[in-house]
Amino acid sequence: MQPIGLVKGPAESPLEFKFITPDKTKLKSGEFVYYYLDGKKVICRILKRTPLRLYPDLYLSKPTVEPERILKALNINLKEFELFEI
After folding, report:
1. Residue ranges per domain, the chain?
2. Which end of the chain is more exposed for a tag (fewer CB within 10 A), N or C?
3. What integer is the mean pLDDT of 16-36?
């Protein structure tokens, strides 16, 4: 078993919480995840996912320039850049 994220804190309602994950493909709205509490699985449903860091406007402003070149010029590592709040 491998962790998929870390809990950030409570959400809007008392029965919801938010967690942060770098996963951009596996976790989708409506799917279920779980954690262990006192040796038992607690099942949770993903309600929504929101990117925490959006790409800079410069990244989107030049359609003729390859996005990877812009990220390299800004010294942004794509894997470290993408985080999602779920």
Report:
1. 6-85
2. N
3. 86
**DSSP element (H, E) containing 70:** helix 67-73
Q: How many CB atoms lie within 10 A of CB 64?
A: 4
Give 3's contacts (C-beta < 8 A, 6+ positions apart): none
Question: What pLDDT score was predicted for residue 54?
Answer: 72
Q: Classify strands 17-21 and 50-51 as parallel, antiparallel or unpaired.
A: unpaired
Q: What is the pLDDT of residue 62?
A: 74
Write the pLDDT tens digit of every residue in 42-72.
999 999 888 887 766 766 777 787 777 777 8
The SS3 call for residue 60 is helix
Closest CA to 32 of 47, 18, 46, 49: 46
Position 80 scores a pLDDT of 64
Strands 32-37 and 40-45: antiparallel
